[in-house]
Hints:
- The structure holds 2 protein chains of 2 kinds.
- By secondary structure, chain A is of the alpha/beta class.
- Chain A contains 13 helices and 16 strands.
- In chain A, the strands form 3 sheets. Chain A has a 7-stranded mixed sheet, with helices on both faces.
- In chain A, strand 6, helix 7 (141-156) and strand 7 (164-169) form a beta-alpha-beta unit.
- The radius of gyration of chain A is 21 Å and the shape is globular.
- Chain B has a single domain, classed as 3-Layer(aba) Sandwich (Rossmann fold), CATH 3.40.50.970.
- Chain B is 40% helix and 14% strand.
- Chain B has an 8-stranded mixed sheet, sandwiched between helices. Chain B has a two-stranded antiparallel ribbon with strand order 5-6.
- Strand 9 of chain A pairs parallel with strand 2 (70-72) of chain B.
Amino acid sequence: MTAQRIGIEVSRAIAIATKLANVDVVSAYPITPQTHIVEDIAELVANGELDAAFIPVESEHSAMSACLGAAAVGARTFTATAGQGLELMHEVLYVASAMRLPIVMAVANRALSAPLSIWGDHSDVMAARDTGWIQIFAANGQETFDNVLCAFRIAEDQRVLLPAMVNLDGFHLTHVIEPIYIPEQGEVDKFLPPNQYPLPLDPDKPITMGAFAPPYIYTEVKKAQQVNLTAAKEVILQCWKEFGDCFGRHYSPVESYRGEKAKVLLLVMGSFSETAMSAIDSLRDEGKEVGLIKLRLWRPFPFAEIRQAVRDAEVLIVLDRAISFGGPGGPVCSEIRSALYSEDKKPKVIGFVSGLGGRDISPGEFRGIINRGIEISQTGSEQEFEMFGVRE
Amino acid sequence: MEKYAVFVPKLVTKKENFAPGHRACVGCGEALAVRLACKALGQNVIIVTATGCMEVVSSPLPYTSWCVPWIHTLFENTGAVASGIEAGLKVIMRKGKCLAKEINVVAMAGDGGTSDIGLQALSGALERGHDFLYICLDNEAYMNTGIQRSSSTPYGASTTTAPAGKMSIGQVTWKKNMPAIAAAHDIPYVATACPSYPFDMMAKVAKGAAIHGPAYVHILSVCPTGWRSATNLTIRIGRLAVETGIFPLYEVENDKYKLSIDLPRLRPVQDYLKLQGRFRHLSEETINEIQYRVSEEYAKLKEKVACT
């Protein structure tokens, strides 16, 4: 392989991924911690290294709206945002998926106001959970880079035609320098075919896009969307397999780390799973049968893979970096519980919320979460979930 | 009329790109404006429409009135969607990913979608200099949702959210001057039009589409349902709006103001107001107030015409 492994900021690597994908339109509005991504793309365009239209819109609502227009004429389209920006584009996200526009977006996951916090957690994307987008969570820089390339291929696949977002933790990933393999243009061209949007807006073949749906047809449209997003999983698996064949790095919806014969499993999404690995290593060294599950594919939800990955454990501890206020805790834990409810053989699921607004979770604290989870599994808790690491 | 019957078919295409069978109300001035605009725009066009009357009457799945490529997404983002289409077309043509040809990108939205909720997206698109035409179809209130006031509703009009009553004349604010806001972006072309003057309107739409850079055409669209006027008076009311000076027809081309119809004497505003139920409660005092304002604004416009 001719790929170069270089030390590079993850945001910059995303910009290079869009260049290697030969993206046509990037429409973006600056928001911390997404800024480096779009600054670098603007620079690539300004220097003539990337032939694309960079539309410096006046809001995130317009950023996603301009993406709708660009994707509708058949342009390969990218944007990036974070936190409040994702909330401002919220209603537009539903339109992108329902109108089958294959837009790719990097989300530098960030907490939501108030109080204002520019730092990372998953509150922003959890509010966008039901928007009909394919949602992938990256655990490190290489995964982010690779999955931006994969996202274009998956989204634009004629069997899919859905928008896809790649989530990366704000600051914890966006602003770190990591060693990342950057492939050659020729390798990317072999992996990623050109975008062939089947029905673009074209005066030679006039079509109506975005007609309104009276009650007699709205449900059918939504059913089609549900069937389509669920079926996208096969294409995602195939894409990851071929990515592995091309580049030697393999991805799956659910990944297990030292999960073999583990009585206790910890499930984490995003970059914090890398810190959790250290905690698992130290507990394993002490002879404890613990393992880690990384959830990479959030939508479409990988039911079969999750059930398979946790079925032999006794306790499954789920970490959420977002809260459903007044509800059952975090969205990830709720969904895992509901995915396992009908299973005969399943672990006890214990939910924790931690790592909000950029608060780190150290390997020691992960050990604390695991130990407290084991304790709750034996003695029970008065709460539906516990928040870990809160200063009282 | 006989003369028109002879000459109009020669001047204007018979082809309807906004097909009949849509569900607009009887006497709708806005549907007429869209129909004429589509004749002026021809085939090589992509139209972006905001949520509103024209979207709802023309596109109930699985039907469509649009014989040209058309997209609707949301209410407030028409300027931004048009930006993406324009930028996207330009780049994929440059990169040889689609055949290079002349395509006019045209955005259409109501007065709410333009002067209220869509103002930010429109301002952004005008400021960035996208090569597109934006048409505001102004029927002076949120008619699609049932005649609620907008910032484009005229002073004294009764609407469902600014109703006339013992303590109110209805709308207590003066109509937002949207063409002036568009012109303040220093774009190459701004015009006002009304389908009661069909040739003038079509010429302005064609000009706006042909001009390189952003263009804005503000079209007064009489709404019998919301204005409480007789459905057979749509054309006459549109003409009275112009003849009274309430809605003057003008162009701002490269900062130069030009009146399209220069009237030696304006008709009294009462001639326009009295045909509409939305003004029926107005006292003589309020009508005088409106008359004073209209005369003053018209004089200001003439001053602009004189100095540029």
